[in-house]
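## retry 2 of 3
previous attempt timed out at serialization; input unchanged, resubmitting
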Amino acid sequence: MKKALSAGDMALWGRIREMQSFTVPELARLTGYSRNRFYRLVRYLEAQGVVRVAGRDADSSVRYKVDRTELPKTSPEAEAPGGSRSPAENMWTAMRGLANFSALDLSVYSSTEAVNVTQREAQKFCRFLEGAGYLRQVRKAIPGRQLPYYKLIRNTGPRPPRECRITVAFDDNLNRWVNLPGEGR
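## retry succeeded, writing output
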């Protein structure tokens, strides 16, 4: 059975709801609670569709916006571990909410207690999506000094594109590809 939000989380949710637009550092400053507590709560509220990423502030803090004011039905601690999302789903969701991002940004905003996204995984996913025409590089990398920044240019919906590998053969005798997907045998 899933539990309701704790009394502390209910109070924090009330503060978030009053603000309508916020960053985690703002909440931490205003309330005196740790940022980690808010990151956990905000990730939960985002998964429930109550808040969403609205962009970035000048100091690079992620700004969130309240979309729904009804209370979430379960607590972050009550979420079932089996219901966790994949790293690709988390990264895609983060990309859809951020204006520009690096692989480091993606790894930070996509990691949860149940799913850890490394910077290497995020960079690999960015390269795949860039090659497939979903991302555009808006700032080039400078080795050892600056990470490349990307922009999502093809947002096709909530589910991430996935890499598919197919095996085909080239017959030199026939001078053509054989065993192509969708080809009648």
